[in-house]
Each structure stands twice: as C-alpha cells, then as structure tokens.
Amino acid sequence: NEPSEQANASAPDLYAVIGSPIQHSKSPLIHNAFAQQTQQSLSYEAVLGDENDFKGSVDAFRARGGCGLNVTVPFKQDAFQYATEHSERALRAGAVNTLVFREDGSVLAENTDGVGIVTDIQNNHQVLISDKRVLILGAGGAVRGILEPLLSQRPAEVVIANRTVSKAEELATDFSDLGCVAGCGFEAVEGVFDLIINGTSASLAGELPPVPEAVIGAETVCYDMMYGADQTVFNAWADRLGAKKTIDGLGMLVEQAAESFFIWRGIRPETGAVLEKQRALLH
Ligand code: ATR
C-alpha cells in the first residue's frame, strides 16, 4: 500500500453537528467523550451550515467522507427534506436531528429528541410516565418532536397548552391516534398534573407561560426543556409553588446524543459521567 492509502484505511469515521450558529454547540464534546468511552474510531466536529444552501453544506460534508450528522437550529426541517428515508418517529416529528449516510447513497432521517427526554425522565430521574397526567406547555417544533416517544409510554392523558390555541389543537389532532391528547390555551388548563413539561421558548425571554398555579401539587414533577447556568424561570416558579422535583433539559441533550450515537455505531454509551461533566462546564 501507498502510505496515503494506509492513512485513509485507518482514518476515523467522520461525524458532525450542523447548525447556524454552531460555535457554542456541546455536541462535539459529548460525542467525542462517547467515542473515547466506547473505543470507537470516530471524529466529531461542528459544521457551520449555509442558511441559504443546506443541501450544499451537507453534500460538501459527505464529499469529505461524512458518515452521519446531527442537525440543529435552523436546519431540522431542511434535514427532513434532504433525507431519502424517514423513521416513523421522524415522520411524526416533521423535523429531524440525526442523519445517517449509508454506503448505497441513501440518507436515513431520525429524531432522537423524544427518546432523549423520555430516557432522562424515566432512567435518570426515575419518574415513570405510564398512567400519569401530563401537561405540555408549547406547541412548536420542540414539542412536536417529543410527542411520539412520550405517548408510547402510555400516559393516562396528555394536555397540550399553548399561547396560540389553534397550534395546540392541531398537534393534539395529529397525535390523537397514539393516545388521549387534548389541546387548549394556558388559562383553560384544569386540575393538578403529575408531570409538566415546558416546551415553550418563553424561558429564553425570562417569561413564564401563564398557566394556573393550581396545576402544581406536592407530587408534581416539572421538566424545562431549556437549561442554563442558572435555574430556568419556569423551574424556579415550580419550586416556589412546591413541586416535588424540577429538572432542566441538560439530561435530554446528553440522552438524545447517546441515542444518535447508538443509531450510528450500534453501541449505547454510558451517559452519567458525560452529563456530570456537562453540568460542571455550565458554571
Ligand atoms: P421550537 O422549535 O423551540 O419549538 P417554535 O416552533 O418557534 O420553536 O415554538 C416556540 C413555542 O414557544 C411556541 O409554542 C410559542 O407559542 P406560540 O405558538 O403561541 O408562538 C411558545 N412561546 C414562545 N414565547 C412564549 C412566551 N413568551 N410565552 C408563552 N409561550 C411562548
């Protein structure tokens, strides 16, 4: 063999996260930690996508030998379009965060966000979703992305509340074949819930979705899909009202990455130490 061929033969498989902006993405650190832990020969980088030419950005990555991509804002719908095959979950979500480039040229689309949040809630926090009364705040892409895995755990009921009521109603209709799902406005939410998930981007603006305080009881677990160095506005509000437990979305981030890694490599990494490291890095 020529030396260059040998180098190629042993080159690590190439993966990346694509988004815009992308420089603050935690995915490279997370995936490279998974690779080291599982002794997989791969490299994982961050790629700044062209907002006017997602296809061109992905084609260029594949030309460099790319095997798979994670996809983040604002490309999750573009990635859906780019793929040639979609998992049932990705079809339901209408957006994807994971692409697999197969050797035959086909492109498989997956969405691992929902598995990420369900795994974090159930495995990392030992909160079972089955038979629970679940309230979801928000009806955007983030919520659509998690509904199928959430409903597959057979909650007793899911209520989707949103500022724009028609969007909550539409989501409820789209997923009604998978369980008991209803959509409404924030003020129309009634009763106490076992699990409340904040999937709105209100926290970004330091705002609270205006749900009645009575949704929170002594046994209520609250989950904010957002996270940061400080507690989110929503989780602080829930704690003040006496919620049993509040969880932020950092575990979801690590678990969705682990699921993507599993799809690509067929090996499920341990997430505990990686999550702890990411938590420490927030401060
Ligand atoms: P994402 O991809 O993060 O879901 P999105 O599709 O723009 O982003 O959805 C944002 C969600 O947060 C929506 O449910 C939005 O409510 P509307 O559908 O009424 O726009 C919700 N949201 C954003 N800011 C909010 C605020 N200040 N209070 C309540 N809900 C808010």
Summarize the structure in words.
The relative contact order is 0.13. 39% of the residues lie in helices and 20% in strands. Helix 7 (141-151) links the parallel strand 7 and strand 8 (157-161). The radius of gyration is 20 Å and the shape is globular. It is of the alpha/beta class and 283 residues long. The chain has two domains: 3-111 and 251-282, Leucine Dehydrogenase, chain A, domain 1 (Rossmann fold), CATH 3.40.50; 114-248, Rossmann fold, CATH 3.40.50.720. The longest helix is centred in the C-terminal third of the chain and has 16 residues, at 250-265. Helix 2 (27-38) packs across helix 10. The strands form two sheets. Strands 2-1-3-5-6-4 form a six-stranded mixed sheet, sandwiched between helices. Strands 9-8-7-10-11-12 form a six-stranded parallel sheet, sandwiched between helices. It is built from eleven helices and twelve strands. It binds 2'-monophosphoadenosine-5'-diphosphate. 2'-monophosphoadenosine-5'-diphosphate binds next to helix 7.
